[in-house]
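Re: Re: ligand-bound prediction request (bumping)

Still looking for help on this. To restate: I need the protein modeled with coenzyme A bound, output as structure tokens. Inputs repeated here so nobody has to scroll up.
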Amino acid sequence: MKILFLTHSFNSLAQRLYIELARRGHEVSIEFDINDAVTVQAVELYRPDLIVAPFLKRIIPEAVWRNHVCFVVHPGIVGDRGPSALDWVIMHDCAEWGVTVLQANGEIDAGDIWAAETFPMRLAKKSSLYRNEVVEAAVRAVLAAVERFQSGNYKPMPLDYSRPEVRGRLHAPIRQVDRVIDWQSDDTRAVLKKIHAADGFPGVLDALYGEAYYLFDACAEDTLCGGEPGAIIARRNGAICRATRDGAVWIGHLKRKNEGAYTFDQNYLGSNPSQPPQPTPALPCQGGSGGGGSSALPLTRGSWRGFGSNGLSELKLPAVLALEGRLADVPEAPLDPFSGNAGETYRDIWFEQKNDVGYLHFAFYNGAMSTEQCMRLREAYLAATQREVRVIVLMGGADFWSNGINLNCIENAASPADESWRNINAMDDLTRAIAATGSQLTIAALQGNAGAGGVFLSLAADHVYAREGVVFNPHYKGMGNLYGSEYWTYLLPRRVGEARAAALTQNRLPVGAAEAREMGLIDGCFGTDREDFLARIEQLAEGLAASPDYPSLLREKIARRERDEREKPLDAYRAEELQHMKLNFYGFDPSYHVARYNFVYKVPHAWTPLYLARHRRIASSLA
Ligand code: COA
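Reply:
Sorry for the wait, this slipped through. Here it is.
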């Protein structure tokens, strides 16, 4: 079938559905939801058999849904209607949630139901639930719905609240007032739930040093405690630890609210200001370092040659960076990555050893790796190679393996060009350390997605395995024609050949794990869920470490590296790649800086790129 995706962006869910439908022989074209006229035009150009809306923020125009079957993917159980579905369910601590595929009609989320799936809930960030449980359930539901539609004889179920199995209800949009943390009365779990329910977007609005910040990326702390609830009691690797009534929580990322001073304005109250919250007083903090400060952060945020504060939003940054200059009195709470089981706490890099296998975890928020994180990870990796292990497994994080250099930190720097340069060099140093390892065999174990430099970093390992649902974006070009480094010109062709390497990097399309295995980009994919994947990775790594072939495998690997080095040294690949990157960062063409700016500030799309909009490609080739 010809399927048109109508979507706000080509996000992780849209990418995964694209991969799954294409794999089943459907032709998929993509149109971003920009305005009604553009949508109508896209439908006229493509004449699809079916329209699927994986991620929409506006309603589909009547001219479209009246004349075409349009499936809307709603992240809620049957009967649930309205925005902020996941936010509410996390706040309400439900045990089970789901995804429903319904047919668009004049009423939001009230159309006939074509398929629905459920999943058990866990206390986790909204973004993590979305990228894992929601995506997996949505794939099952959309595939079922598409099959039913194709059969031609399926009658979808009208929404009928009198049926006992219809448990969802219409809910109001969630407002910041619903999310407010009352540090005096909320316990750790309540604080976590509120921040998790707003993770990714929009964050929980709160006061720090008398200014308004959105909080993201929270986790529990089970050792540190004390201090007035809300006070900042420690810092570690970019995160801050705040006391709660009964313990403490870590907050990894902050986004400053545009307006500066902390006020409860109309916007904050949302559409129903009937229950005005009490303005939170400036927060007291241990050692006098928190609350009440009045000096504002400098407003200039790494603006690139004439780009400046844009009124869209501020940058989401590691908390310590967002509060730069304010935390002098807050004690560091260092944690050695090799310290073993540290209980519940914040850590972005840690090492575990089981028998002869070392597992190096690096769970960086959104998979973005800043200069400093790349350096710390390289240090940890080199320390791991000194351990008594035969195999090192590079675990990434549960939600992402890696998405390459940290574009937010780069945007925030005084000179984004200089910071881009430092960051890519730190990534290269890390990649090289892995690629050149002669003392162990290495495995990259991708529990979550990888994009851009993150994909090529994984290829530095001897073996690459991914969970079945993982999506790869092995290209940089979408970021303003960025050339990329991470030794990709060495690592990619040696796995897939020159022709395919060129196609992958130029086409800019996502690749599913199964397709990645078929083309040789990775060595295997398995595991329906994370637990299953991790269990099999452990078996594989143990098997490799205990294999009688281990010494010869290690010898072969060293010999191959030496041979490759003689043919063309790693330094030469790097120098060539960085030559291109220098032009991207410092040259006359500002495309990378513009694309990065648009990406980090989430500037809405003005059109759908032709590499996604097949219908527009066809139209332009006929013109
Ligand atoms: N630096 C900073 N933030 C990044 C990032 C990066 N390299 N890659 C992803 N993110 C952030 C996004 O801004 C988004 O943040 P939000 O939660 O605040 O909205 C979050 O990670 C998730 O990204 P999103 O684009 O929504 O995820 P996705 O799964 O739909 O798409 C990618 C994944 C990899 C295709 C997309 O994120 C991307 O193009 N990233 C940039 C990759 C890149 O060019 N890296 C630099 C060159 S090495």
